[in-house]
Specification:
Elements lengths: L1 E7 L5 H10 L3 E4 L6 H9 L7 E5 L11 H10 L5 E6 L2 H11 L11 H18 L2 E4 L5 H12 L10 E8 L10 E4 L20 H8 L2 H23 L4 E8 L5 H14 L4 E6 L4 H4 L6
Parallel strand pairs: 1-3, 1-4, 2-3, 4-5, 6-8, 6-9, 7-8
Amino acid sequence: MRFVIVTGLSGAGKTQATRSLEDLGYFCVDNLPPKLISKFAEACMQSDGKIDKVALVIDIRGGVFFDDLFESLLELKENSFTYEILFLEATDEVLVKRFKESRRSHPLSPEGRVITGIEEERKKLRELKNRADNIIDTSKYAIKDLREKMNTLYGDGKVMAQQLNLTVVSFGFKYGIPTDADLVFDVRFIPNPFYIDELKPFSGNDEPVRNYVLGQNETEEFLNRLQDMLKFLIPNYVKEGKRQLIIAIGCTGGRHRSVAIANAVYELFNSTEYNVSIDHRDVNEDVNRGGRKL
């Protein structure tokens, strides 16, 4: 089990670091009293392998309990628990700026100057920093930079692209655009199988409709252009730290054209390094509502 203790200066980015660890599959607990660390570690070890990556955020917010940390770390070592410490810091100037932007007071100086709290916190954490396995200075980091660093240190070699969940959704415009869609494409310009009697009863999941829709010249050109666009966009979304991308393909009723094309887009990316899934939101909606016009 990989056991990471996340600590460091207030305002240095522990929250963002923890979110990155969660994206990497870590079970994260924030502000656990140090005296409970050993019992928590034992509980994780008894999970039959269900919990194999753990991150605990422990810092001076624990107040008087924080002083128990070194005793708890010694107890872990005595019980043969392997752990590593991640320490996040930043310059005084950057930390002061972050506190002012967030309009928060420093936990060690709630009614005084922020810089006073920062200086006191540095003294309290000096020994813990000296014990750290990894130290990250986030002074010049954007969120995406911290994500990349966390992925390098704790991602077990997993490339960032594999962390992107790509979902292709087909839908009908008459039922509304999916509220969580990032990219929306309208395919109502393609000839509609609804008006062909022998195709009308089927959906885009069925071979007759699929062959009809994908056999149109407009469809072929659209898919070629869409593939080029997505191959450009997706790596840049990943680079900026995006972890989920919803691509919505819409036609009038969400049963014929959008379904066939969404399936084609899914197939284009299913063999890539991304985690790809598909959802046909409205494929049965018109049937359920009495077969109104598609």
